[in-house]
Amino acid sequence: MLQGCHLVSYRIEMPYAVQTEVFEGPFDVLLRLILDQEVDLYEISLTNIVDSYLTEMERILSGAANDGNNSGVDLELATEFLLIAATLVELKTRRLLPDRTDGDLDEEFGLWEERDLLLSRLLECKTFKTAASIFRQMSHQASFAYSRTAGPEDKFLAIAPDLLGGVTGENLG
Questions:
Q1: Within-domain flag for 43
Q2: What is the model's pLDDT at position 5?
Q3: Which of 23-32, 78-87, 100-109, 123-132 has the lowest mean pLDDT?
């Protein structure tokens, strides 16, 4: 049903590892394999994945509370997980529900569009994450630069025209 859809490759950095009967590895790789139809979505238990993720989040939160650290959960990673999990749920739902019409090409293209929309959201998330990283790096590099605090040298003052010469408060009013 979702065959023939050509998509740009993507990758979201997510260290959360998944262990199922069919796949063991990073969560984002699982999504990529499912979308490339190298892993069958029917064989993946989304309930187990979400339960283990929630257990991991509780462990992180309790560890942060015990350490007195207020940093808590990395919201960026939590958001990425939710986005990928929502994509998997959407794909699995679409595959589990029977088609109402067998030959409706427009509906099939609509499903491809929805899949592409989900993937474009993943790409958009990755793009903004990369842009934020670049801005952070540029800001860090700019923190080593200092602006000139002294005025121009005297020899340059004689050359520069006096732009405010003859301007007084009465002239402006």
A1: yes
A2: 34
A3: 100-109
Total number of domains constituting the chain: 1
Q: Is residue 105 part of a domain?
A: no
Q: Which of 1-15, 124-138, 145-159 has the lowest mean pLDDT?
A: 1-15
Token code pair at residue 110: 């609509």
Q: Which of 12, 1, 4, 3 has the alpha carbon at shortest distance from 119?
A: 12
Structure tokens belonging to residue 157: 């003052």
- What residues contact 61, with CB distance under 8 A and at least 6 apart? 72, 73
Q: Tokens 């903004």 correspond to what residue?
A: 128
Separation in Å, CA 71 to CA 5, 74, 136, 159: 41, 8, 19, 56
Q: Is residue 50 part of a domain?
A: yes
Contact between 24 and 17 (Cβ < 8 Å): yes
Residue 62 placed within a domain: yes
Quick check: 19 pLDDT over 90? no
Q: Apex CA 141: angle with CA 137 and CA 143, to 5°?
A: 115
- Rounded to an integer, what distance in angstroms lies between the CA atom of residue 85 and that of residue 161? 65
By residue count, the chain amounts to 173
Please give the pLDDT value at position 6: 33
- The amino acid occupying position 25 is G
Compute the distance between CA of residue 65 and CA of residue 72 in angstroms, rounded to an integer: 8
Domain containing residue 58 = 17-100
